[in-house]
């Protein structure tokens, strides 16, 4: 063996070891590990070792830091710090989403989550700046590659974990990203999908999202994204995945009553991503949770953003292709996908379309509320509603893109008059941008 040997824990129970041998990752379960303490759905409990010839197994790569985070670890710990995949896993593996913890051999896993007083950060005058400082200070916290990728690059976002929440923010070239995601997740919630609790900072720059990797009684849940389930390295999340893959993997790992329920949720997520023009719905932005291989459920909705509302991403296409094409699927293509790949009935699909449409309508007052509260968000809000209006046309079973008149969502939200917001400021209870903001826990 070469390199470090790591101990693998599942829900605080030692279950196996991970090592390197001739460039391959080798994971081995300890004797007598119960079947329900599996590390990954691709690695059920067995006596034989799991060998991954391309290095670290995809599951263990799932939460590795990348980009900025990786660079900051090297800068903080010195140029000789081990920033190989195994070295990074040894540094950050005790803090990751899900019930699996990875620590150096003989080390007990500590508590996860950062020491962040979230209420103070959300109420601070510069929540974004304070969050970035926390991220910079906690460079060895186990933050996934799906979170900060390179803070110095346009279009990225930064994330910090606490014991109960994930705190996220964006940057100047993607303004009001936190409010954008907050509203998109509210649409998902009103459509009937499970969505973690969300809280928005007083200045609208930071979004707090409840962690969904534990139950209400404090038990850890396993979390595995679809990139890992497909056996892919994270860098392949765009290149090798398809919507058909999501359907196949969902059917493969679901069982019992969860088969139909997971299929319905996945179809609803597709409709939402199309309606809200979320062009970043790649393999890592879908996941499952489970307590055992017999209880696999689609994870709550997360990372839903109207990406195309920003000028530089206006022409972005969906991250994953359908039937070999990366286009905003509509009408018959969606019906065909829901029926042939997910086994849904026409009634199922019609119900999903109606739920998404009603959810968008139901969130319009909240869009207006946010536009009133955050004047800088007003123009983004208008563009979001324009995008959503066209998206709602696409998800209809009889959709004819470009040939129908979309719903006047701007008008319905009271945002069509460019001067209307200014005229209402005197009666707006949230007019003081420095005043206290009493957020609803959603």
Automatic annotation (TrEMBL):
One Pfam family this sequence matches: HipA_C
Region span, Disordered: 397-442
Domain HipA-like C-terminal positions: 143-360
Keywords: Kinase, Transferase
Enzyme class: transferase
E.C. number(s) listed in UniProt: 2.7.11.1
Record-linked Gene3D superfamilies: 1.10.1070.20
InterPro entries the UniProt entry points to: HipA-like_C (IPR012893), HipA_N1 (IPR017508), HipA_Ser/Thr_kinase (IPR052028)
GO molecular function list: protein serine/threonine kinase activity
Keyword Transferase: yes
Domain HipA N-terminal subdomain: 6-102
Superkingdom of this protein's organism: Bacteria
PANTHER family listed in its UniProt record: SERINE/THREONINE-PROTEIN KINASE TOXIN HIPA (PTHR37419), SERINE_THREONINE-PROTEIN KINASE TOXIN HIPA (PTHR37419:SF1)
Protein family membership: Belongs to the HipA Ser/Thr kinase family.
Protein name: Serine/threonine-protein kinase HipA
Species for this entry: Caballeronia udeis
Lineage of source species: Bacteria, Pseudomonadati, Pseudomonadota, Betaproteobacteria, Burkholderiales
